[in-house]
Amino acid sequence: MTELKTVGLFALTALAEIVGCYLPYLWLREGKSIWLLIPAVLSLAAFVWLLTLHPTAVGRVYAAYGGVYVVMAIIWLWTVDGIRPTTWDIFGSIVALVGMAIIMFAPRST
Fold it and tell me: Which domain of life does the UniProt lineage start with (predicted)?
């Protein structure tokens, strides 16, 4: 169950980061309202806070989080951008998740 909570927390963290970066993108590249920067800042603040909730060394959290971020970015590509992931996108996401699992869940003495 701890593993499921960790992956879920990483997924929520990644979503906060992606939203926090996507909203300024909409303002800068798509000509949307500057008011999108307010929820973007809140989303990025939530991202930072969520990263602090993991009970392991911060370097390990950052390294492992990257694997889940890759998967969430591919899901975003499909659901928000409307671009279907390729086989290579999916394969790369699986590799990233395996890397995350090794980093976070491998037995260690410290």
Answer: Bacteria
